[in-house]
Amino acid sequence: ETLDKGLEKTKTSFFGKLTKAIAGKSKVDDEVLDNLEEILISSDVGVNTTIKIIERIEKRVAADKYLGTAELNQILRDEISALLAETNSGNETDFSIPTGKKPYVIMVVGVNGVGKTTTIGKLASQLKAAGYSVVLGAADTFRAAAIDQLQIWADRVGVPLVKQNMGSDPASVAFDTLTSAVAQNADVVIIDTAGRLHNKVNLMNELSKVKRVMQKVVSDAPHDVMLVLDGSTGQNAFEQAKQFTAATEVTSLAVTKLDGTAKGGVVIGISDQFQIPVRYIGVGEGINDLQVFNKFEFVDSFFK
Ligand code: GDP
């Protein structure tokens, strides 16, 4: 039910508009489809993904000849879930990490302010609660505040943080973190990195250096490069996804601040457009306000 509460604004807005759009209509016709298109775009699903969804529904209308508006909810659920099929299986339920990699190394990327530190803290807390030993690394050495904030989270959660002074080499921090994690026989390492986008070449070089140096300790690290995006920023989030995926290989997404926005549809659009699984969603500032993303629960929460 945290998910329902976290997505309240999106849900109310989406469902409210949809209800209005089909009021007094028994059949899905062009007008209903036009309205639906507008609703999806205004929920920040994105134009390309919206068009795909509408086309899928048009196909259903054509096949069934008559499609009642009463069935529209179910059909939307089916079609949106199907669209997310390639990136998210729908079986995701718990906070867990793949077996066979120890330590499992997650490198977290994203621009400042999106909720990167908070997401790392929440994730560390959930993984610890699930029984994993976690080590954090403060490789965002560009801002003193980033290191301090991460320390606050590490203390709150009760996990070790490896850090150096502000301005030190991020790759060196990453190296120390992995070395320490290996020595402690830790299960998971979560490494924070700086997210300056102003210079793509710098970003690319910095991230590849961090990766390269990590591999001196754990040869196939990082196992996951997780991009954190602020879900309330709509098209900016799309833009950041574009830039980061161009700079490095992003393997998962965390979308934050969905509690503060009516535009939660951004999750559907980004996951479809970039074909990267959404792993977690942030639905509040508290330590427990991180959810494992499950497409069925997510889509269902729109219609409940
Ligand atoms: P960073 O600069 O990317 O590390 O961002 P922070 O983790 O410091 O977060 C920036 C602000 O966003 C803080 O005030 C967080 O409490 C807030 N924040 C992070 N995630 C969420 C979320 O899921 N929901 C809400 N409402 N706020 C969040």
From TrEMBL:
Record's bilayer topology term: Peripheral membrane protein
Q: Which GO terms describe its biological process?
A: SRP-dependent cotranslational protein targeting to membrane
One annotated GO molecular function is:
signal recognition particle binding
Q: Which residues form a coiled coil?
A: none
Keywords noted in UniProt:
Cell membrane, Cytoplasm, GTP-binding, Hydrolase, Membrane, Nucleotide-binding, Receptor
Assembly notes: Part of the signal recognition particle protein translocation system, which is composed of SRP and FtsY.
Q: What is this protein called?
A: Signal recognition particle receptor FtsY
- Gene that produces this protein: ftsY
